[in-house]
Amino acid sequence: MEINRERLAVNFTELCEIDSPSRREGPISQRLQQIFRELGALEIIEDDSSSRTGSECGNLIIRFAGDLDLEPIFFSCHMDTVQPAEGVQVKRVGDLFTSAGDTILGSDDKSGIAACIEAMQLLGETGRPHRPVEFVITTCEEIGLIGAKALDPHLVQAREGYALDSSGFARVITHAPAANRLTITVNGIAAHAGLHPEWGVSALILAAQALARVPAGRIDEETTANFGTISGGAASNIVPEQVVIEGEVRSHSVEKLARVTEEIRDIFNTTVAAWTDPTGSAKGTPSVLVEARQDFPLMQLSKDDRVLRRVEAAARSIGMALTYERAGGGSDANIFNGHGLATAIIATGMTNVHSTREQVELQDMVDLTRLLLALMTETSC
Question: In this structure, is the dihedral angle defined by the CA atoms of residues 186, 214, 149 and 17, taken in order, positive or negative?
Fold first, then answer.
């Protein structure tokens, strides 16, 4: 099957020029439903996740019946983009797509969606037999994977699939870390900093003392920790009463994730517990609360897992060489794997994502479409 390059380019451009920042995905959801309906989708489901995500719409689950007596697979993309994403205009020079202005392009993740559309258009035109296919298109991926987190996994009939959402090309992501999100609240005692500073307890000083001791940055080859924001205090002449720190720990090892998280908790607790009042004048004692919650679960696939053997066979059938890598970030694939849906991540060709320098080559989207078609049609995959 020969990919219709210009149709793919036109569809990609159209999708990019439909603004869809996180929580404002309504227009692109409606357009995608129209496109897949015209392509003969067996069923289109919009879930009720918007009540939890705050999006204009829910996640989409789109099913196509198969001609081959093979197990179904799914392909996942997200329909939202990062900002700046208002009034996107696509610039094409040859086969290179960029933003024409001061916005992102939107190839993250519309390059993946465009490849899915072209694959189904070709299958419809040629009548080529294929396995049952589902497309899971989520909202709010860019603001914490919250669309995928709100998705009922029982709505997905396939037990394994591929998230089309990574930079570069011919890359398959097999491992991604689990992450804990940290909110640390240090409580001190407010006082006038000029009149009676000894009456107060500085939450800011205690937070700084703890932050100077906690593990941060690259802990080892599997683990990182970061403290991204700190807020608190009321004015320069008031001893700060409260400081709130937001941070995270990530690791490819659940044991290390738990250990580093607890080490951070212990350091804050012991730092505050070690506070002393040298003048005996303080109007109270400090306290601290360290809250840790799972942000996303571990993604860890083995080379013997069928989802990886299948994509390798599909790539081999079209003469494509793949590389297999670990990632440092989380994606919807982490959530799906956490639900028992074996999911590998396939790169779509996009580069410089999350910036106004974002770009993608048409040939990469063409080759991605070829790989999707092989996954859908090859009986040996």
Answer: positive
Q: Over 80: is that where the pLDDT of 381 sits?
A: no
Alpha helices in 274-331 (DSSP H): 306-317
d(CA 80, CA 332): 12
Residue 318 corresponds to which tokens in the numbers above? 């079209």
* Cβ–Cβ under 8 Å, residues 238 and 197: no
Q: With beta carbons less than 8 A apart as the criterion, state whether 155 and 58 touch.
A: no
Mean pLDDT score, 46-54: 98
Q: State the chain's mean pLDDT as an integer.
A: 97
Backbone angles phi, psi at 270, to 5 degrees: -70, -35
How many Cβ atoms from other residues are within 10 Å of residue 291's Cβ? 11
pLDDT computed for residue 380 by the predictor: 78
Q: How does pLDDT run across 337-360, given as a tens digit for each residue?
A: 999 999 999 999 999 999 999 999
pLDDT band for position 242 (50/70/90)?
Answer: very high
CA 194-199-204 angle, 5° bins: 80
Sign of CA dihedral 113, 114, 118, 124: positive
**How far from each other are the two terminal CA atoms of the chain, in whole angstroms?**
17
For residue 215, count other CB atoms closer than 10 A to its CB: 16
Helix %, strand %, coil % of the chain (to 5): 35, 30, 40
pLDDT range class, residue 1, cuts 50, 70, 90: confident
Cα–chain center distance at 338: 14
The DSSP code sequence of 194-220 is TT-GGG-B-HHHHHHHHHTTS--EEEE
- Assess whether pLDDT exceeds 80 at residue 277: yes
Residues 6 or more apart whose CB falls under 8 angstroms from that of 279 comprise 198
pTM for the model: 0.93
Which amino acids are annotated catalytic? 80, 141
Q: Which of 327, 317, 328 is nearest to 375 (CA)?
A: 317
- All domains in the chain, ordered by first residue: 5-177+298-377 (3.40.630.10), 178-296 (3.30.70.360)
Q: Do the beta carbons of residue 120 and residue 39 sit within 8 Å?
A: yes
pLDDT confidence band for 379 (50 / 70 / 90): confident
Residues, the chain: 381
